[in-house]
Structures are given as C-alpha cells and as structure tokens.
Amino acid sequence: MNKFLSDKANSVIPYVQGEQPKDKKYIKLNTNESPYPPSKNVKKAIIESDFDDLRLYPDPDISDLKNIIAEKYKLESENIFIGNGSDEILAFSFMAFFNKKDKIYYPNITYSFYSVYSDLFDLSEKKIPLKEDFSIDINNYKNLDSGIIIANPNAPTGLLLELNEIEEIIKTNLNNIVIIDEAYIDFGGESAIKLINKYNNLLVIQTFSKSRSLAGMRLGFAIGNKELIKGLKNIKFSFNSYTINRLSILAGIEAFKDEEYFKKSVSKIIITREKTKEELKKLGFKVLDSKSNFLFISHNKIFGENIYLKLKDKGILVRYFKKEIINNFIRVTIGTYEEMIIFINALKEIIN
C-alpha cells in the first residue's frame, strides 16, 4: 500500500498482457497479432505524408476515417466512434453506459479486461457460466436487469454466436445496453453491425489490430445509435480531445480502403487455422472450433502449463491462463503457414 495512491490505484488488479521477452528471437503466437504486414498503401501514405504537419494537432473528430467506415456500412458518420484501440472504447463504454454499482453481465470465461474495467469503475460484475463445451447459452442472457457485453467470437475460446443468436439477446434486452465486442469477427462470423439501425440499445466494437494488421497503431471503432456515440464522445472529450495521432489516422484510412488486401490476409489466416486444427487433432489435442485468428487447445497427457513452458524453451510463445476451468488449455495465435509447421513439429517433439 502506498499512502500517495488512491484506494483504487492500490487495490485494482491490472490486465496482464501477453509477454514480450527480448532475450532472444521468438515465434510470437501469444498476442493474436496478424502474421502479415499492413497493406502497402499504409506504408506509402505514411512515407508520403507531410512531415511538417506533425507540429499540428490531429483532427479530434477523425472525420476522414469515420466517413470511410460510415460509407462502407451505409451509415452516417454520427454512428461511428474512433478510439485508441478497441480497449479504449471498451473503457469509455464502461464509463458511458453504466453508473457506479450497476450490474454488468458477461461470460465467466471471456476477455479479462472486462473484469479489470468492472473493478476500476466500481461496477458489479455478474459472470454467467459457459456451458460444458465452452459455448454461450443465449437463454442465460434474455430479459436481464442491466447491461451486457459479449465478445463474439469469444476470447479465449474462439467460439462464435450466430447473428440470429446475437439478435435474440438484443431484442430481449431492449431496456439494456448490449455491447458486442467483435475484435475477431472478420475470421468467420457475421457482424452485428447490420442490426444497428434496428436496435438503439446495440453498440458494436471492432479493431484494426487483428484483421487489418495495425496493432502497433492502436486503432479501434464503435458503431451504434447516434445517442450512444454521443455518450462515448462525451467521455472522450472529458479526457483527451486528441486520442488518435496523425499517422494512425492515415494508416487506418488506407487499411480500411484496401479491401482486396484485407480479404487476402484474412483468407490466408483462415486456411492456415483450419489446416492447423487438423494437424493438432492428429496429435490427440482437443481443439475448440475457433472462428477467430487463434486456437484454444488442450491435451489429456500433458498439462497446459507444461506445453507452454516447453514451447517457450523452443522459442515459441503461446498464451497460458492460470485460471480455473481453462488452466489445462493454451491459446495459440495463427501465424504464417511456415510458423505453424514449426509449431506443430515442436509439439510432436514435446509429446514424444
């Protein structure tokens, strides 16, 4: 305890990121980054940008990027909010749509930042257990008495709810905010964005970090009813008017415009994911049917933490969670095809 810190700063348990060791070169399969670089158009735009403009503040409304996103989804720019990564938008959402002590509902196994934000903003988290197969039972989310957040596909399981299931949750909670965190939706799901004009209680959050290869630029966006977006803007402009720097805005614009490269990169990841699933099953692994850019796997002969440590010794980083229910699993980001061959061969050595 430090006497200069607030009670909250002393007590909160921060989010734990995937490790980033620098002692040697690793194959990084632990933080769900894209194995492919951004579109070449991103590089070109940054190189050709006016260096002198860096002395000026960026557009606080990020209008150019908002307009491109709005055009794609046939919405208005007032339906779009841009944040410094989707994590920032999640934090703003917890502040904008909940009062202190309000309940917030989400799965007991999901993105761990939700618990951090619940604690940080003094919300009453209500964790709804997953089914035995790690899937979400939508019946547990009907007619609740407060707001809901669901990652779809869920993390770290990678399991997907179909759009009709998401809509069932939304329409049975018309008096509650329903936040759908779609960080991984591009790898196999149908986005709830198409429901925005139908439901004013729906907020959809996406990121540029995964499918658009811009994790280093910290960009995310939310789409929702104009009043919800106004609430997010009220929070943002009470903290920092300029959350997105000029180069990130340029990168986001070009990444979003290059639809061909986006589809090509996503397709390669999906193909590699499905091939990796089959190879893992041949080795006796339990492999959840992920629709994301990662796999959640376990083996009945070797404990998850042991696999994680042995892979690290071999220069391969994966994610291990010391959490009840999933402590025998590891989460593996889908890398390049070549990286996944190295990963599979390393597992063969470990098992043998």
TrEMBL record:
Homodimer. Keywords: Amino-acid biosynthesis, Aminotransferase, Histidine biosynthesis, Pyridoxal phosphate, Transferase. Residues 25-346 form the Aminotransferase class I/classII large domain. It comes from Brachyspira aalborgi. It is an enzyme of class 2 (transferase). Its EC number is 2.6.1.9. HAMAP family: HisC_aminotrans_2. GO terms for biological process: L-histidine biosynthetic process. Its cofactor is pyridoxal 5'-phosphate. This is Histidinol-phosphate aminotransferase. Belongs to the class-II pyridoxal-phosphate-dependent aminotransferase family. Histidinol-phosphate aminotransferase subfamily. Pathway: Amino-acid biosynthesis; L-histidine biosynthesis; L-histidine from 5-phospho-alpha-D-ribose 1-diphosphate: step 7/9.
